[in-house]
Amino acid sequence: MTTEERFERLETIVERIAERQSTLDDALASLAESQERLYEIQAEQYTRTQEQFRRTQEQFRQLAEDTDSRIEKLVSAIGTIARRNP
Q1: Taking CA atoms, which of 23, 38, 58, 86 is between 20 and 30 Å from 4?
Q2: Closest C-alpha among 50, 70, 74 to residue 62
Q3: How far apart are CA 59 and CA 51, in angstroms?
Q4: Quick one: how far is CA 19 from the chain centroid?
Q5: Nearest residue to 53 via CA among 70, 14, 61
């Protein structure tokens, strides 16, 4: 094999390596974009979950207040009835 043939062969190998590197770079860029989008989706889901949790807590708080009020009214009514009928 002549020196010229060796150089040609080396050039071919280097070109293939460069092509594969370019393909790898593209794949890594695509992966990075996908990962970034995934983080964005997770952040959005977290925000929605936190808001739903806040609403649920408010509903439970309101339900507890309503229940307490109803119990107070029932106890008051029972007391009124008990005072009327000794």
Answers
A1: 23
A2: 70
A3: 12
A4: 37
A5: 61
